[in-house]
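Lay summary. Proteins are chains of building blocks that fold into shapes, and those shapes determine what they do. In this project we predict the shape from the chain. Here is one chain we studied, written as its sequence of building blocks.
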Amino acid sequence: MEVVAVHLRETVDELEENSKFNHSSMREALHSLLNQTNRATEIIQKDGPEMISALTDRYVTETVEIVDDYVDRVINAIQNEVGYCAPLSTSYNATVVAICDEVVDPLNGFWASIGWC
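And here is the predicted shape, written in a compact code that computers can read:
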């Protein structure tokens, strides 16, 4: 029982120390908190609309800048980093021409000449 009482007393002392919030007493800490709350309320009532307007403008500006940076990045990537298509197109066209001109056309000519005879 005595061990429990000692532990309880230590816990109470620790709670009292932690509840001072870097002040000499809990009463002083509460007064400081109330003063800060009152000052915050006054600032919000006095400057709140202007602060919200400024924060909104800053948020919108930063968001637009982020979107603009992304669009610039995409445009740059499309113009400079996406593979150039001409070599691929040239290879495809050469393959089609080679197959049509060198294989299919002679066969068509052969079948046409057999049918005309």
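What the prediction tells us: Residues 26-81 form the longest helix (56 residues).
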